[in-house]
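Subject: design request, 335 residues
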C-alpha cells in the first residue's frame, strides 16, 4: 500500500515507517522536524512540511494517491500541555482536523490515529476498557479526545474509516538501536532513569510515594514500541480488508510501579543510579493499566515483548548509542 506517515521522523512514527518499508509498502513521511529527525527515517521518502500548511498537504495528496494515512505527528508532553494549551489544541487538534479534511476531500478512506490512555483521565476501574468514560484531565488528553470525536463524526457521514489506538506507556527502541526516543529534554520515566544511569542527569526524581498503590508509587502499563507497531500493522490490514472503524487500547494489561521500573533499570544497566523523592506531579493518575482484550480478540494482536527487562534493554542500547557511550566508559564513570 502507499501510506502517508505523519510524524514519521519522530519516535513512534519512525518505527512505523521502518516496519512499513520492511514489509514492502510504499512510504511517504510528512514531518516538520520540530521534534523529529531526518536520520530517523529509515524507509520511504521524507517530505518536510507542516500540517498547518493546508496548501502543501493538498498538493501532496494530489500528487501521491495515498491508500492510507497513519497520523503520529503531535505534541506529547502532558505538563507542557497544561502550561501551553493553545500549542496542543493547535497542533494536536486543528492540524489533525486539516489532515482528516484533506483525506476526505482526496478520498483517502483508511486512517490510523495515535490516541492515548490520557483520554480516560483518572479511570474508575483498572484495567480500563475502551467504553470507560472519557474525562481527560489535561489539554493533551483533551486534544486527542477531540480528534477521536471528529473521526467518529466524519466516519458516520462518509466512507472514511479509522482505527484509533489508545497508547499506554510506550517505551523501548528498535532492537538494532537504529532508532529510538530522541528528545533532548525527555520526561518519560524509563528514559529519565537511563539518563541518570548514564550520568547525564543527577538522579531520578520519583514524583510522589504516597499514592494508594502497593509501594506508594504510580503504576503504568509499559508497552514496547514494536508491539505497538504490530498493532498498527494489524489495524492497517483490518482497514484494507474493509473493516469498520474501531478504537482499541494498546497495553499489556498489567503494570509496574515507578519503584519497580527503577529496580529493573538498575538490573539491566548494572548501575545503582541515585533516586530521590519529590512531591506528586500534577495530573498523574495513581494507576493506568489497559484492558487490551478487544484488540487481541478482534485483530489477533499478540504482544511479542511483554517483558519490562527487554523493553529497558532496547532503550538502554539506544541511549548508549545516542550519547556515544560504551560499557567501559560507563563502568569507569560509575566506579
Ligand atoms: N515519573 C517519575 N519521575 C520522572 C518521570 C516520571 O516519578 O522523572 C513517574 C510519573 O509520575 C508516572 C510514571 O513515572 O507515575 C510514568 O510517567 P511518564 O512521564 O513516563 O508517563 P505518563 O504516564 O505521565 O504519560 C505517558 C505519556 C503520555 C500518555 C500517557 C498515557 O507521556 O503521552 O503515558 O498513559 F498519555
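Subject: RE: design request

Done. Sequence follows.
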Amino acid at each position: 500500500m502507499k501510506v502517508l506517515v505523519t510524524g514519521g521522523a519522530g519516535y513512534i512514527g519512525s518505527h512505523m515507517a521502518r516496519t512499513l518499508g520492511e514489509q514492502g509498502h510504499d512510504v511517504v513521511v510528512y514531518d516538520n522536524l520540530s521534534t523529529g529527525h531526518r536520520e530517523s527515517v529509515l524507509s520511504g521518502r521524507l517530505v518536510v512540511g507542516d500540517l498547518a500548511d493546508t496548501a502543501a498537504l493538498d498538493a501532496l495528496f494530489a500528487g501521491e494517491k495515498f491508500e492510507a494515512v497513519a497520523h503520529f505527528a503531535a505534541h506529547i508532553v502532558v505538563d507542557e500541555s497544561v502550561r501551553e494549551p493553545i500549542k496542543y489544541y493547535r497542533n494536536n487538534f486543528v492540524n489533525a482536523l486539516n489532515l482528516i479534511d484533506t483525506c476526505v476531500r482526496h478520498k483517502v478512506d483508511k486512517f490510523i490515529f495515535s490516541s492515548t490512555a490520557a483520554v480516560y483521565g483518572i479511570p474508575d476501574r483498572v484495567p480500563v476498557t475502551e467504553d470507560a468514560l472519557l474525562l481527560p484531565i489535561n489539554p493533551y488528553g483533551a486534544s486527542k479526545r477531540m480528534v477521536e470525536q471528529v473521526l467518529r463524526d466524519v466516519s458516520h457521514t462518509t466512507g472514511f474509516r479509522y482505527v484509533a489506538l489508545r497508547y499506554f506507556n510506550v517505551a523501548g527502541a528498535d532492537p538494532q538501536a537504529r532508532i529510538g526516543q530522541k528528545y533532548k529534554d525527555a520526561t518519560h520515566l524509563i528514559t529519565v532513569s537511563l539518563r541518570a544511569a548514564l550520568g547525564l542527569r543527577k538522579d531520578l526524581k520519583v514524583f510522589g510515594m504516597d499514592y494508594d498503590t502497593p509501594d506508594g508509587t504510580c503504576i503504568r502499563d509499559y508497552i514496547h514500541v514494536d508491539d505497538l507497531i504490530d498493532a498498527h500493522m494489524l489495524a492497517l490490514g483490518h482497514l484494507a480488508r474493509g473493516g469498520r472503524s474501531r478504537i482499541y487500547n494498546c497495553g499489556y494489561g498489567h503494570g509496574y510501579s515507578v519503584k519497580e521500573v527503577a529496580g529493573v533499570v538498575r538490573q539491566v544497566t548494572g548501575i545503582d543510579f541515585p533516586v530521590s523523592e519529590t512531591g506528586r506531579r500534577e495530573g498523574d493518575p495513581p494507576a493506568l493499566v489497559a484492558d487490551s482484550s478487544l484488540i487481541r480478540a478482534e485483530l489477533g494482536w499478540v504482544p511479542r515483548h511483554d517483558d519490562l527487562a527487554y523493553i529497558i534493554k532496547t532503550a538502554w542500547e539506544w541511549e548508549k548509542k545516542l550519547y556515544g557511550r560504551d560499557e567501559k566508559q560507563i563502568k569507569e564513570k560509575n566506579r
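The first strand starts at residue 2 and ends at 6.
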